[in-house]
Amino acid sequence: MKTIKRILFLLLLLLSASFPVMAADGTKTTLYTIAAVLLVPLAAAFWITAAKVRQMKTARPDHYASNYIKDGSFHLDVSQDIYLFSTMRKTPRPKANRK
Amino acid sequence: MDTIRDYKCPSCNAPLAFDGGRESLHCASCGNDFSLETMTLLEEADKGPNEQSAYDWENYEPRAFSAEEAAQLAGYTCPSCAAEITGDESMGASVCPYCGNTTIIKGQFAGSLMPDYVIPFSVDKKSAMQRFEEACARAPFLPDEFKNRRKIEEMTGVYVPFWMFDCDCNASITYRAERVHMWSDASYNYVKTDHFKLLRRGGIGFANIPVDGSGKADNTYMEAVEQYDYSAAMDFNTAYLSGFFADKYDVSMEESKARANERIQNSTEAAFAGTTDGYAAVRPEHTSIRFSDSKVRYALLPVWMLHIRYKDAVYNYAINGQTGKTVGEYPICKKKQNLFFAKVYGISLAIAAVVGALYLYWG
Question: What pTM, to 2 d.p., does this model score?
Fold first, then answer.
């Protein structure tokens, strides 16, 4: 827990140190990039650690019976795809993005 | 006799009227047109799936032990969890395999149903312990102390009662599906969505779906410890109980049906859903499942039950007595977990920083 707190403190320090650069530069791209550099690895670390924690509990219910399907027993007698109708939605493109 | 048929719009359910110019049924509400052929197909598709699902299981015919077989058995009762287990007459029992209570009372064999078949233990106690150690080695955040300071309360081999369900299913499922096309021109972004009705009818068979028949055995553990190789199943004989316990069932076949039905329904729906590829979105509209050739049997399956005391907590594990598969919940070392998180974050941060710097420099 202490390690995580130290990492979060360093991140806040790094982010606050970058504010003068952004203010001088004035671009949103730099801000978004720094946020992505800090947050994407955080999300990845959480996700990978959570996957490892899941391995510590192997007793899980099985809500399916896929392992008990008789070989070759699955068959389709009727398979129909019926077209009904279509809907169309069009939205005007912003003028600044037109190329 | 129906002389007038009224058609409803599949999109908005408003009445359709035949448009002679378009030679199709036109909806004045949403503006869609449908050919007569499409409406006929839809009518036929809606006929079948209006049936409700029916899960009809055959009645189970119980069998009792003969007097000679009963004489070789003894009953054991746990005053803590009320488990009633059967064992070989000569077996000395001291610990309940379910709750770990150290006082179990040996009494007369009180009689129970004779199983249809049993899968004998093929993993002995030593091999089971070895499998457990291998499983511990694979647990990423297991405290180092767990290996040295744990106390194995008891490891007991138990034949757990299961109800085994076989059946053939006939299913009829309708879906609503959508296919999406997107494109742009100079002025607009376009999204066209094609709507479909999918009809699937067919069959699928299941064999040996086990449902735990013991109220004391944790159902989650018993499902997790599957699968068994049923080709090794033998007609029941009391000789197989020698050195092991056999639990009496206290969850009836009727009570177990619901779980079997749930697993069958989920797998049937998944199998049929696998035939609806090629669409952006598919959602089931109506499902009808009916059984045929259903069969229920009563079986005993081998499980090693292991109770471990570590830091004033008891951790329970189940080991498949045929395959050695080990399941349970392991204690987590927070220090190892945090260190792992910090390492992964540090490495990811370094990679992301390089990528971000390159993007800003060249972007």
Answer: 0.76
